[in-house]
Amino acid sequence: DEQSRLSAEAEHRQAEAEERYRLVEERHLEAMKQIAALKAASKCDQTVHEEIPAQPFWGQLFCREIDETPIPPNFREVVVEPFDGSQDPYAHLQALQT
């Protein structure tokens, strides 16, 4: 009869609404986890920035392990002129092999 059909339809709609609510709750929990992870990463990154004074010539800060690695006293920086395209690129790179 009409009453049982309407009751079944209402139950179906209720089940669909509960499923949608469950999915929204799952997405909400996942978003909260992501926000917490981002905040933790941001706090860690901020701590690194506070501990290491920024130098104007640095392009980026490296991880602490790299920053704390001492440079050997006999280290010699390689100075290479920028490639301007006026010569053979292979010849330009030959300077690095000497």
What class do helices, strands and sheet pairing give?
mainly alpha
Number of helices: 3
- The low-confidence parts are none
Oligomeric status = single chain
How many E-type strands?
0
Order of helices and strands: HHH
**Residue-averaged pLDDT:** 80
- Strand count, sense and closure of the main sheet? none
* Rg: 31 Å
Q: What is the approximate shape?
A: elongated
Distance between the termini: 95 Å
Summarize the amount of helix as a percent range: 55-70%
Strand content: under 5%
What's the domain count? 1
Structure in words:
By secondary structure, the protein is an all-alpha fold. It has one domain (2-97). Helix content is 62%, strand content 0%. It contains three helices and no strands. It has helices at 2-51, 64-68, 89-94. The radius of gyration is 31 Å and the shape is elongated. The model has no long low-confidence stretch (mean pLDDT 80). Keywords: Coiled coil. Residues 7-34 form a coiled coil.
